[in-house]
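Progress report, Aim 2. The chain analyzed during this reporting quarter is listed below.
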Amino acid sequence: MTGDASSPPPSELARPVSLRQITGRPYEIEANEAERAALARRFAIVAISRLVAGVTLDRQGERVAVQGTLTADILQPCAVSGEEFPVHIEEQIALRFVPEGSIHPSLQEGDEIEIELDEGDLDEIEYAGDTFDLGEAIAQTLALGIDPYAEGPNADAVREQAGIKTDDAPSGPLAEALAGLKKD
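Predicted structure tokens for the chain:
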């Protein structure tokens, strides 16, 4: 497959949707084994055993609002011990696909912009032509749902063994004196 240097790599969970296909019926996207393995590599986690999203598409001219839920079961390394542990993720999906150039039409390439979203605002994803990739939006939603600092069940024991004090543990001379009294 060829493409210019600015085009993104193909999505591991490609699910192209044409505007003409939108009928109001719910969509269910379930990643197969190869897609889950590729996404796990992309997101630097051990494995994804399940990834399912149920969404509805509401077409408003060339804009398409997407609402639904993503459910995933992943295996990721503990941020403290590196030990693998299972995590269940449920994320709400609320976004809108908009035609390319409609988010900030006056921006020039290289311009930087800061956007503040209100609670009711939807994330907007631009698309070109009459097709958008719903699967990639689902993959990005999963990425946002993965906690890169998640701690497994043995994190506290590993900290204690390494002599690392947690933020919630009292520290300082008084705490050390009290700890000494408890030992006696």
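The chain has one domain: 16-153. The helical segments are 33-42, 134-145, 155-162, 173-183. These observations will guide the mutagenesis work planned for the next reporting period.
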